[in-house]
Amino acid sequence: MVESKRGGVVRQMADIRRVHGREHEREVLAAAVDDVTSGVARVLVLQGPPGIGKTTLLRVLSDTARHRGLQVRRGRADEVGRRPFGPLLEALDDLVTARPGLPDDRPDPEDHDGLRYRMVDELVAGAETAALRGGLVLVVDDLQWADPDTVLALRALGRWLADSPLLLAVATRPVPRRADLDRLLAALEDDGATVLALGPLQDHAVRSLAADVLGSPPDAAVQGALAQAGGNPLYLVELLRQDGRAPVPSSLV
User: At CA 131, angle to CA 128 and CA 135, rounded to 5?
Assistant: First the structure.
């Protein structure tokens, strides 16, 4: 039997990095890769608490996109050093041909908005150039820490490149979230973004993850102890490293 194109992408995602469960999410990511490969723009928003697997799915998406011949650019917002446009400059720095100046470097505070919008134009132009070379996947992780200039630029990217072969994939926690980020996410969803709210792993995925970490299927005692993790993959791994029976490790507190 000939395997479907989308089924092949899902299998590639499972093989590139071991993911436990998340069948629906991987199917959605596969569809997005298919679309951008065909020249259709897509926006994905992954939401969930710390440790739930957002970054893992973004890495799977990135690896699979590269396997399909798409260019992947990645940036990550930083809780501490919120440089203007930081995640996007991390991803697109070499594609920005002109630098009108960043807001923190402005010689004249009154020109703040002018500099912001000129920099947005440069980032959009750079992303469009990359997308037109055969498709672009632009990933921004930890969006909850993004500076206001990054939020502004992401809105422009989602709107102005809606007809380009661009897959914009972002990940964020439900909290903390500023009002401008809430407005961005609402606007992206209104424009057709797919939102994946990641919940706890199902029981079969918990058992599979435990077997991977332990090297053998978990016994009943271990499975009972793992209930403390509430289906959170990061917490599960930490518990398993404590042998699956000890109290919740202090690293989780």
Answer: 165
Reported as a single tens digit per residue, the pLDDT across 129-153 is 999 999 999 999 999 999 999 999 9
Cα gap 150→143, rounded to integer Å: 9
Burial of 40: CB neighbours in 10 Å, binned 0-12, 13-18, 19+: middle
pTM: 0.84
Only one residue has tokens 């996947």, namely 137
Identify which of 94, 93, 82, 160 has the alpha carbon closest to the alpha carbon of residue 121: 160
DSSP conformation class of 4: P
Q: What is the pLDDT of residues 84-119, one digit of tens each?
A: 999 999 999 999 876 665 555 544 555 667 888 999
Dihedral over Cα of 234, 59, 193, 75: its sign: positive
